[in-house]
Protein backbone atom coordinates (compact mmCIF):
# COMPACT_ATOMS: atom_id res chain seq x y z
CA UNK A 1 0.00 0.00 0.00
CA UNK A 2 1.21 3.49 -0.81
CA UNK A 3 -1.13 5.23 1.65
CA UNK A 4 -0.94 5.20 5.43
CA UNK A 5 -3.59 6.44 7.85
CA UNK A 6 -2.58 7.44 11.37
CA UNK A 7 -5.18 7.38 14.12
CA UNK A 8 -4.34 8.48 17.63
CA UNK A 9 -5.77 6.48 20.52
CA UNK A 10 -4.97 8.50 23.67
CA UNK A 11 -6.03 5.76 26.06
CA UNK A 12 -4.49 5.61 29.52
CA UNK A 13 -7.33 4.18 31.59
CA UNK A 14 -6.28 0.61 30.91
CA UNK A 15 -2.82 0.96 32.39
CA UNK A 16 -3.61 2.19 35.90
CA UNK A 17 -1.28 5.18 35.62
CA UNK A 18 -1.23 8.49 33.80
CA UNK A 19 0.93 9.46 30.85
CA UNK A 20 -0.05 7.28 27.86
CA UNK A 21 -2.64 9.94 27.04
CA UNK A 22 0.27 11.93 25.57
CA UNK A 23 1.54 9.06 23.43
CA UNK A 24 -0.08 9.92 20.07
CA UNK A 25 1.22 13.48 20.10
CA UNK A 26 4.67 12.27 21.13
CA UNK A 27 4.82 10.15 17.98
CA UNK A 28 3.80 13.15 15.92
CA UNK A 29 6.42 15.33 17.61
CA UNK A 30 9.04 12.63 17.01
CA UNK A 31 8.37 12.96 13.28
CA UNK A 32 6.42 9.87 12.32
CA UNK A 33 4.68 11.66 9.43
CA UNK A 34 7.93 13.04 8.01
CA UNK A 35 9.70 9.68 8.31
CA UNK A 36 6.97 7.81 6.45
CA UNK A 37 6.65 10.49 3.79
CA UNK A 38 10.42 10.34 3.24
CA UNK A 39 9.96 6.66 2.39
CA UNK A 40 7.53 7.61 -0.37
CA UNK A 41 4.20 7.09 1.38
CA UNK A 42 1.18 9.36 1.33
CA UNK A 43 0.26 9.87 4.99
CA UNK A 44 -3.11 10.99 6.32
CA UNK A 45 -3.28 11.88 10.00
CA UNK A 46 -6.88 11.62 11.19
CA UNK A 47 -6.11 13.08 14.58
CA UNK A 48 -7.26 11.32 17.73
CA UNK A 49 -10.25 9.03 18.20
CA UNK A 50 -12.69 9.75 20.99
CA UNK A 51 -14.38 7.15 23.19
CA UNK A 52 -18.03 6.21 23.02
CA UNK A 53 -20.22 6.34 26.10
CA UNK A 54 -20.57 2.94 27.74
CA UNK A 55 -22.79 3.35 30.81
CA UNK A 56 -23.98 -0.27 30.41
CA UNK A 57 -20.48 -1.71 30.88
CA UNK A 58 -20.65 -3.50 34.22
CA UNK A 59 -19.05 -6.54 35.79
CA UNK A 60 -19.34 -8.63 38.92
CA UNK A 61 -15.56 -8.37 39.27
CA UNK A 62 -15.22 -5.30 41.47
CA UNK A 63 -11.41 -5.09 41.21
CA UNK A 64 -11.51 -4.04 37.54
CA UNK A 65 -10.31 -0.48 36.99
CA UNK A 66 -11.99 2.05 34.68
CA UNK A 67 -14.19 -0.58 33.03
CA UNK A 68 -16.67 1.88 31.52
CA UNK A 69 -13.90 4.11 30.16
CA UNK A 70 -12.06 1.16 28.57
CA UNK A 71 -15.32 -0.20 27.18
CA UNK A 72 -16.02 3.18 25.60
CA UNK A 73 -12.61 3.17 23.93
CA UNK A 74 -13.09 -0.44 22.83
CA UNK A 75 -16.36 0.36 21.10
CA UNK A 76 -14.95 3.45 19.42
CA UNK A 77 -11.73 1.83 18.22
CA UNK A 78 -13.55 -1.30 17.08
CA UNK A 79 -15.72 0.85 14.81
CA UNK A 80 -12.72 2.84 13.56
CA UNK A 81 -10.67 -0.28 12.86
CA UNK A 82 -13.54 -2.01 11.09
CA UNK A 83 -13.83 0.98 8.76
CA UNK A 84 -10.09 1.41 8.18
CA UNK A 85 -9.56 -2.30 7.57
CA UNK A 86 -11.89 -2.08 4.58
CA UNK A 87 -10.13 0.92 3.06
CA UNK A 88 -7.18 1.24 0.69
CA UNK A 89 -4.70 2.58 3.26
CA UNK A 90 -2.52 0.92 5.90
CA UNK A 91 -3.75 1.92 9.39
CA UNK A 92 -1.36 2.70 12.24
CA UNK A 93 -2.90 3.19 15.68
CA UNK A 94 -0.86 5.51 17.88
CA UNK A 95 -1.29 4.68 21.56
CA UNK A 96 -2.13 4.89 24.25
CA UNK A 97 -1.93 1.83 26.51
CA UNK A 98 -2.40 -1.72 25.25
CA UNK A 99 -6.10 -1.80 26.06
CA UNK A 100 -6.54 0.02 22.74
CA UNK A 101 -5.95 -3.36 21.06
CA UNK A 102 -9.23 -4.62 22.52
CA UNK A 103 -10.86 -2.49 19.84
CA UNK A 104 -8.33 -2.42 17.02
CA UNK A 105 -7.72 -6.16 16.78
CA UNK A 106 -11.43 -6.95 17.19
CA UNK A 107 -12.23 -4.57 14.33
CA UNK A 108 -9.62 -6.07 12.03
CA UNK A 109 -10.76 -9.59 12.92
CA UNK A 110 -14.31 -8.74 11.90
CA UNK A 111 -13.14 -7.20 8.63
CA UNK A 112 -10.95 -10.23 7.90
CA UNK A 113 -13.88 -12.57 8.53
CA UNK A 114 -16.00 -10.57 6.08
CA UNK A 115 -13.24 -11.00 3.48
CA UNK A 116 -13.05 -14.73 4.15
CA UNK A 117 -9.43 -14.50 5.25
CA UNK A 118 -7.84 -15.44 8.58
CA UNK A 119 -6.36 -12.73 10.77
CA UNK A 120 -2.98 -13.47 12.32
CA UNK A 121 -1.59 -11.40 15.19
CA UNK A 122 2.07 -10.81 16.09
CA UNK A 123 2.25 -9.59 19.68
CA UNK A 124 5.62 -8.00 20.47
CA UNK A 125 5.48 -7.65 24.24
CA UNK A 126 7.05 -8.57 27.57
CA UNK A 127 3.57 -9.65 28.72
CA UNK A 128 1.09 -12.13 27.29
CA UNK A 129 -1.93 -9.86 27.91
CA UNK A 130 -4.06 -13.02 28.09
CA UNK A 131 -5.83 -12.37 31.38
CA UNK A 132 -9.59 -12.46 31.73
CA UNK A 133 -11.63 -10.29 34.07
CA UNK A 134 -11.50 -13.13 36.56
CA UNK A 135 -7.77 -13.88 36.40
CA UNK A 136 -6.43 -10.32 36.23
CA UNK A 137 -4.54 -9.70 39.45
CA UNK A 138 -4.17 -5.94 39.01
CA UNK A 139 -7.55 -5.16 37.48
CA UNK A 140 -5.77 -3.12 34.77
CA UNK A 141 -7.43 -3.95 31.47
CA UNK A 142 -4.34 -3.44 29.31
CA UNK A 143 -3.51 -7.00 30.38
CA UNK A 144 -6.58 -8.53 28.69
CA UNK A 145 -6.64 -7.79 24.92
CA UNK A 146 -5.41 -11.13 23.58
CA UNK A 147 -7.78 -13.10 25.78
CA UNK A 148 -10.67 -10.93 24.56
CA UNK A 149 -9.93 -11.14 20.83
CA UNK A 150 -9.25 -14.89 21.09
CA UNK A 151 -12.76 -15.44 22.43
CA UNK A 152 -12.12 -16.18 26.09
CA UNK A 153 -15.40 -15.92 28.07
CA UNK A 154 -16.65 -13.06 30.22
CA UNK A 155 -15.90 -10.05 28.01
CA UNK A 156 -19.31 -9.31 26.44
CA UNK A 157 -19.73 -6.08 28.39
CA UNK A 158 -16.84 -4.44 26.52
CA UNK A 159 -18.76 -4.18 23.24
CA UNK A 160 -22.16 -4.63 24.86
CA UNK A 161 -22.49 -7.91 22.94
CA UNK A 162 -20.41 -10.97 22.10
CA UNK A 163 -17.31 -10.28 20.02
CA UNK A 164 -18.38 -10.45 16.33
CA UNK A 165 -15.29 -12.33 15.14
CA UNK A 166 -12.63 -14.05 17.21
CA UNK A 167 -8.98 -14.56 16.36
CA UNK A 168 -7.97 -18.21 16.30
CA UNK A 169 -5.45 -18.46 19.18
CA UNK A 170 -3.30 -20.70 16.97
CA UNK A 171 -2.90 -17.69 14.66
CA UNK A 172 -1.26 -15.63 17.43
CA UNK A 173 2.48 -15.39 18.03
CA UNK A 174 3.85 -13.63 21.11
CA UNK A 175 7.52 -12.65 21.01
CA UNK A 176 9.59 -11.27 23.88
CA UNK A 177 7.80 -12.69 26.93
CA UNK A 178 9.38 -12.26 30.33
CA UNK A 179 6.50 -11.53 32.74
CA UNK A 180 3.43 -13.80 32.69
CA UNK A 181 0.94 -14.46 35.50
CA UNK A 182 0.57 -18.13 36.57
CA UNK A 183 -3.06 -18.58 35.46
CA UNK A 184 -2.35 -16.62 32.30
CA UNK A 185 0.49 -19.00 31.43
CA UNK A 186 -1.86 -21.97 31.65
CA UNK A 187 -4.48 -20.29 29.44
CA UNK A 188 -1.93 -19.35 26.78
CA UNK A 189 -0.72 -22.94 26.64
CA UNK A 190 -4.19 -24.48 26.60
CA UNK A 191 -5.42 -22.07 23.91
CA UNK A 192 -2.60 -23.06 21.56
CA UNK A 193 -0.99 -19.62 21.29
CA UNK A 194 2.56 -19.65 19.93
CA UNK A 195 4.57 -17.95 22.67
CA UNK A 196 8.32 -17.32 22.81
CA UNK A 197 10.07 -15.90 25.85
CA UNK A 198 13.44 -14.15 25.93
CA UNK A 199 15.24 -17.42 26.70
CA UNK A 200 13.99 -18.83 23.41
CA UNK A 201 15.20 -15.70 21.65
CA UNK A 202 18.59 -15.98 23.36
CA UNK A 203 18.98 -19.65 22.50
CA UNK A 204 17.56 -19.77 18.96
CA UNK A 205 17.69 -16.20 17.68
CA UNK A 206 14.72 -14.01 16.94
CA UNK A 207 14.72 -14.60 13.18
CA UNK A 208 14.49 -18.38 13.63
CA UNK A 209 11.36 -17.90 15.74
CA UNK A 210 9.69 -15.36 13.47
CA UNK A 211 10.30 -17.01 10.08
CA UNK A 212 8.03 -20.05 10.60
CA UNK A 213 5.19 -17.85 11.82
CA UNK A 214 5.44 -15.61 8.76
CA UNK A 215 5.49 -18.70 6.57
CA UNK A 216 2.23 -19.84 8.17
CA UNK A 217 0.61 -16.46 7.54
CA UNK A 218 1.67 -16.58 3.90
CA UNK A 219 0.54 -20.17 3.38
CA UNK A 220 -2.90 -19.38 4.81
CA UNK A 221 -3.35 -16.23 2.74
CA UNK A 222 -3.77 -14.40 6.01
CA UNK A 223 -3.84 -10.78 7.06
CA UNK A 224 -1.30 -9.83 9.72
CA UNK A 225 -1.86 -7.34 12.52
CA UNK A 226 1.25 -6.35 14.49
CA UNK A 227 0.99 -4.93 18.01
CA UNK A 228 4.27 -3.41 19.21
CA UNK A 229 4.55 -2.64 22.91
CA UNK A 230 7.37 -0.38 24.11
CA UNK A 231 8.26 -2.96 26.76
CA UNK A 232 9.19 -5.46 24.03
CA UNK A 233 12.48 -3.53 24.03
CA UNK A 234 15.14 -3.40 26.71
CA UNK A 235 14.12 -0.56 29.09
CA UNK A 236 17.64 0.85 29.07
CA UNK A 237 17.07 2.05 25.51
CA UNK A 238 13.27 2.45 25.72
CA UNK A 239 12.49 3.79 29.20
CA UNK A 240 9.13 5.46 28.47
CA UNK A 241 6.84 2.67 29.63
CA UNK A 242 5.10 2.07 32.92
CA UNK A 243 5.59 -1.71 32.86
CA UNK A 244 9.37 -2.02 32.51
CA UNK A 245 10.79 -5.53 32.71
CA UNK A 246 14.58 -5.93 32.38
CA UNK A 247 15.98 -8.18 29.70
CA UNK A 248 14.07 -7.08 26.62
CA UNK A 249 15.10 -7.19 23.00
CA UNK A 250 18.10 -5.21 21.84
CA UNK A 251 18.06 -2.34 19.39
CA UNK A 252 19.17 -4.63 16.57
CA UNK A 253 16.77 -7.46 17.44
CA UNK A 254 13.83 -5.05 17.39
CA UNK A 255 14.90 -3.59 14.07
CA UNK A 256 15.49 -7.04 12.61
CA UNK A 257 11.90 -8.00 13.41
CA UNK A 258 10.64 -4.89 11.64
CA UNK A 259 12.91 -5.47 8.65
CA UNK A 260 11.75 -9.07 8.34
CA UNK A 261 8.14 -7.95 8.52
CA UNK A 262 8.78 -5.47 5.72
CA UNK A 263 10.42 -8.13 3.58
CA UNK A 264 7.43 -10.44 4.10
CA UNK A 265 4.94 -7.86 2.75
CA UNK A 266 2.32 -9.52 4.96
CA UNK A 267 1.57 -6.82 7.54
CA UNK A 268 -1.76 -5.04 7.06
CA UNK A 269 -2.15 -3.02 10.29
CA UNK A 270 -0.08 -1.85 13.26
CA UNK A 271 -0.53 -0.82 16.90
CA UNK A 272 2.14 1.26 18.64
CA UNK A 273 1.34 1.02 22.33
CA UNK A 274 2.32 1.84 25.91
CA UNK A 275 4.45 4.91 25.11
CA UNK A 276 4.36 7.10 28.22
CA UNK A 277 6.18 10.35 27.36
CA UNK A 278 6.07 11.40 31.02
CA UNK A 279 8.67 8.68 31.65
CA UNK A 280 10.83 9.35 28.59
CA UNK A 281 14.30 10.83 28.35
CA UNK A 282 14.25 13.73 25.86
CA UNK A 283 12.01 11.81 23.48
CA UNK A 284 14.39 8.85 23.25
CA UNK A 285 11.72 6.17 23.28
CA UNK A 286 9.34 7.99 20.95
CA UNK A 287 12.16 8.45 18.47
CA UNK A 288 13.09 4.77 18.66
CA UNK A 289 9.51 3.68 18.08
CA UNK A 290 9.30 5.95 15.04
CA UNK A 291 12.57 4.48 13.74
CA UNK A 292 11.20 0.97 14.19
CA UNK A 293 8.08 1.95 12.27
CA UNK A 294 10.28 3.27 9.47
CA UNK A 295 12.07 -0.09 9.36
CA UNK A 296 8.70 -1.83 8.98
CA UNK A 297 7.98 0.38 5.98
CA UNK A 298 11.26 -0.18 4.22
CA UNK A 299 14.07 1.83 5.75
CA UNK A 300 17.25 -0.20 5.51
CA UNK A 301 20.20 -0.35 7.88
CA UNK A 302 22.37 1.67 5.52
CA UNK A 303 19.75 4.42 5.35
CA UNK A 304 19.59 5.03 9.09
CA UNK A 305 20.71 8.54 10.12
CA UNK A 306 23.21 9.10 12.91
CA UNK A 307 21.51 10.44 16.05
CA UNK A 308 22.61 11.46 19.49
CA UNK A 309 20.43 11.82 22.57
UniProtKB/TrEMBL annotation:
Chain segments annotated as coiled-coil in the UniProt record: none
Catalysed reactions, as listed in the record: L-arginine + H2O = urea + L-ornithine
Key words of the record: Arginine metabolism, Hydrolase, Manganese, Metal-binding
PROSITE patterns documented for this protein: ARGINASE_1, ARGINASE_2
Cofactor: Mn(2+)
Pathway: Nitrogen metabolism; urea cycle; L-ornithine and urea from L-arginine: step 1/1
GO-annotated biological processes: arginine metabolic process; urea cycle
Catalytic activity, EC: 3.5.3.1
Superkingdom of origin: Bacteria
GO CC annotations, alphabetized: cytoplasm
Recorded GO MF terms: arginase activity; manganese ion binding
Binding site for Mn(2+): 98, 125, 127, 129, 229, 231
Family according to the record: Belongs to the arginase family.
Name of the protein in question: Arginase
